[in-house]
Amino acid sequence: MSVQCQPGERHDDLSKSCQQCKPGTFGMQDENTRLGSCGACQIGVEVQPLPAQQQCARCDAKQRIPVDCGLPNKIQVYKGYYRPDGVPPTVSLVSRDGSASDDAGASTPPVMAVACPWGTKACAGGALHGNASCVTGHQGHFCAECWTGWFRGASG
Questions:
Q1: Hey, where are the domains in the chain?
Q2: Do 26 and 36 contact (CB within 8 A), yes or no?
Q3: Given its phi and psi angles, is residue 125 left (phi above 0), alpha (psi -120 to 50 degrees) or beta?
Q4: What SS3 string covers the chain?
Q5: Which of 4, 9, 26, 66 could form a disulfide with 113 if both were Cys (CB 3.0 to 4.6 A apart)?
Q6: What is the chain's pLDDT, residue by residue, as a tens digit (156 residues)?
């Protein structure tokens, strides 16, 4: 008897249990056997930094979404751009009309990072997001706040 896995999981024959799909992959279920498996996100086209997901997010650097799409298990943000921590990769930080964020859908690459008001002086970019992506001395949304005891000079 086989175990029925949840979406985002794969059936492990050895342990006869379900395992989460790893970042860089997505879960799918065979319609005939009902067994779960993981498929790889397409390198340079899709990303999925979270485990146990059912889809990859479109990542097309040509669409100017300020991230490097080369590693499907990470959202690698360009220097001078900011991505909040904890936002699912399929959610665009800017909606189609330029206002609040929305789910971009499978066919449209979501805006995964936004320009930092202080550019590379405050936002380091990289695979870490939120405060972890701020340059030393900066914190908060868009790395726009100074650490206690620090201040911003005339040049930023």
A1: 9-146
A2: no
A3: left
A4: CCCCCCCCEEEECCCCEEEECCCCEEEEECCCCCCEEEEECCCCCEECCCCCCCCCEECCHHHCCCEECCCCCCCEECCCEECCCCCCCCEECCCCCCCCCEECCCCCCCCCCEECCCHHHCECCECCCHHHHECCCEECHHHCEECCCCCCCCCC
A5: 66
A6: 567 889 899 999 899 899 999 999 999 998 888 889 999 999 988 999 999 999 999 887 666 678 998 999 999 999 999 999 999 998 888 875 554 455 555 567 888 999 999 999 999 999 999 999 999 999 999 999 999 999 877 665
Tokens of 80: 């001078």
d(CA 117, CA 142) in angstroms, rounded, equals: 7
Q: Is-contact 144 117, C-beta < 8 A?
A: yes
Residue with structure tokens 């005891």? 149
